Amino acid sequence: MQTVRTLLVDAFTDEPLTGNAAGVVPEADELTDDQMQAIARELAASETAFLRASEEADRRVRYFTPTTEVDLCGHATVASHVHLLEDGAVEPGAHTLETNVGVLDIDVADDGTVWMTQDDPDIERVELDYDRVGEALGVDPAALRDVGADLPLAVASTGLPFLVVPVNFLEHVGGAEPDAAAVEALCGEVDAVGVYAFTFDAVDADSTLHGRMFAPLAGVPEDPVTGTASGAVGAYLRESDAFDEPPDEMRFEQGHFVDRPGSVRVRVDDEVRVGGRATTVLDGRLVVPEAEDDGIVEL
Question: What's the domain range around 131?
Answer without folding.
Answer: 122-270
